[in-house]
Amino acid sequence: MGLVKGATSFWHSYREREILARDDVEYILSTFTGIHDAAPLLPDGVSMAERIVRKYAEMAFPT
Predict the structure, then answer these.
(1) pTM to 2 decimals?
(2) Among 22, 17, 32, 31, which Cα is nearest to 59's?
(3) Nearest to 56, CA basis, from 4, 2, 1
(4) What is the residue extent of each domain of the chain?
């Protein structure tokens, strides 16, 4: 399981018990180091933190 899927699965399972808003996830991720720099090899060149937030939003708030 990749980092993004693993992290978003964690947030999703936590959300089952307690609703986490996107802002909460962003705040929690802000406490981690090494995941906030843009990653040119990732699609869109976004940071790992942004990819985790986006995937969490997809899983937590499906359209």
Answers:
(1) 0.64
(2) 22
(3) 4
(4) 3-60
Asked whether the beta carbons of 21 and 1 are under 8 A apart, the reply is: no
DSSP state of 33: S
**What is the per-residue pLDDT across 1-59, written as a single tens digit (0 to 9) for each?**
465 666 666 655 655 556 677 888 888 888 888 888 888 877 788 888 888 888 888 87
Q: How far apart are CA 63 and CA 2, in angstroms?
A: 24
- The closest alpha carbon to 57, from 23, 17, 18, 6, belongs to 23
Contact 17, 3 (CB under 8 A): no
Question: Which residue in the block uniquely carries the two structure tokens 């990653």?
Answer: 39
